[in-house]
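Question: Now follow the chain.
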Amino acid sequence: MSATLEERKAHLDPARRERARKIVAYLKKHYPEPKSELSHKTPFQFVTAVILSAQCTDKAVNRVTDVLYKKYKTPLDFAQAKPADFTKEISAIPFFRNKAKAIIGAATKIVDDHKGKVPNDVEELQKLPGVGYKTAHVIVGELYNEWPGIPTDTHVRRFALRFDLTDMKDLNKISKDLETLVPKKDWKYVNNGLVLYGRYICKAHKHDCSEHALTKLWPPAADRWVAAK
């Protein structure tokens, strides 16, 4: 039987909680408005961008969607896309065949089951093809400014492990550990803050980061480099 939230809290290292508090305080100050860098003008365009962004950089996604979104705007537009054409249009993205199928499937389900409106419920979102725990939480955060959980991507994973905030390697389990460590009112700052910090300040390749702001909060992180999963 999995541990309850109360049981997990009882076994948390107080040092981890304090470390998480300091990290979140920095993120709140330097990234006070959590927003994605994925380009979009309509809600389903953002869903599409998030699905495309799996194992792909935001810049690469934006290059593709800058053209794609001139043709596809609403869920109905995507649902009516010709699979062969759509697959070709996103072929610069890794795993484009699976992603094309997922996007068209998600659009169809939103049209059929949600009257064309992207749901703001993470459980409903996870019923869509191509949408998992992380993706669903990113979507409701960006579109509805609601943060019922902490989405963990590769940036969040590596910082959670480098700063010894979790013993887990699975992304969803890391999310649960962070949600236990961080007060719910601050959940919205974690993903976007660490993504931007990791993208522009402390990149994934091994380097001297001893003078970086977060490393100064906990110097052992300078020697803890996390292999890609």
Observations:
- The longest helix spans residues 96-114.
- Residues 43-144 form a domain with the Endonuclease III; domain 1 fold (CATH 1.10.340.30).
